[in-house]
């Protein structure tokens, strides 16, 4: 509802500004004898509107007060001292200049509101999203939800549960050698390798995309996880001699840490990840 209101105000303010410009241009061109004077007032109105856009409505209103006071004084002087007549010309710009300011302020206010709502939606989407858009893998939020369930199943049915955490060796050095696009392609390719190296009832997660870290939840014990580790490293070594060497011009290697779930030691999914990451230090 707020987004619809912001859009309506923005559209209304833009239409008002457009109509004000049209009326002012027609009025300026209507009397050739006052053409220069009207052009000056039109430029002043636009100038105050632009200042309002980049500052605040308070500044715009203060400038309008100065304009009205100055123009009113000038009109009074011409009427009293020079005997001039007060006509449409004298009232038009006293009305139109504040109209330009108000229309610009409403347009700016609505746009800022829409920008704020857009940022809020992006943050909400990022916090609620359970899948990485680049690799189509489940993310860390999804891992926490799934790990909680898997840990409970492991305890209830006495099934071994092992978490593998994978990262790329020398990633900081590699990212200085290849472009951002190739970095994302590397993350995608490694994700595909990891995905094809596990069983359908096991789960793969991209825990961190900036410093690529994957997590695998395997319904197996620590010894059984070694088969998956060997399969992953063999697959990456095979591709390093063919596809990766040609595509990225660097060698990609995985560091893998594994920890079997123990309810007495690991109480939360975050602790599960932390324990698995500690095992990465032993894979050099």
UniProtKB/TrEMBL annotation:
Transmembrane segment boundaries: 12-29, 35-54, 61-79, 91-110
Entry annotated with the keyword GTP-binding: no
Superkingdom of origin organism: Bacteria
Matches recorded under InterPro entries: Rev_trsase/Diguanyl_cyclase
KW Transmembrane (keyword) present: yes
Keywords associated with the record: Membrane, Transmembrane, Transmembrane helix
Name used for this protein in its record: GGDEF domain-containing protein
Species whose genome carries this gene: Paenibacillus filicis
């Amino acid at each position: 509802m707020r987004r619809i209101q912001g859009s309506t105000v923005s559209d209304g303010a833009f239409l008002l500004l457009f109509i004000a410009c049209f009326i002012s241009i027609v009025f300026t061109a209507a009397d050739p004898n006052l053409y220069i004077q009207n052009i000056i007032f039109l430029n002043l109105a636009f100038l105050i509107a632009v200042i309002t856009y980049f500052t605040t409505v308070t500044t715009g209103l203060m400038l309008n007060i100065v304009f009205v006071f100055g123009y009113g004084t000038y009109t009074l002087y011409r009427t009293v001292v020079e005997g001039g007549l007060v006509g449409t010309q004298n009232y038009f710009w006293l009305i139109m200049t504040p109209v330009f300011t108000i229309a610009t302020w409403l347009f700016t206010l609505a746009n800022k509101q829409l920008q704020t709502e857009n940022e809020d939606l992006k943050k909400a989407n990022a916090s609620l999203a359970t899948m990485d858009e680049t690799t189509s893998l489940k993310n860390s939020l999804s891992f926490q939800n799934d790990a909680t369930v898997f840990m409970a199943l492991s305890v209830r049915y006495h099934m071994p549960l092992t978490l593998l955490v994978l990262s790329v060796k020398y990633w900081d050095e590699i990212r200085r050698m290849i472009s951002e696009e190739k970095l994302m392609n590397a993350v995608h390719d490694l994700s595909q390798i990891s995905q094809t190296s596990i069983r359908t009832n096991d789960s793969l997660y991209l825990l961190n995309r900036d410093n690529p870290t994957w997590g695998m939840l395997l319904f197996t014990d620590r010894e059984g996880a070694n088969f998956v580790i060997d399969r992953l490293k063999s697959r990456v070594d095979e591709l390093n001699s063919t596809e990766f060497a040609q595509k990225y011009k660097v060698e990609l290697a995985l560091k893998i840490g594994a920890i079997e779930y123990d309810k007495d030691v690991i109480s939360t999914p975050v602790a599960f990840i932390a324990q698995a990451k500690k095992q990465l230090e032993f894979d050099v």
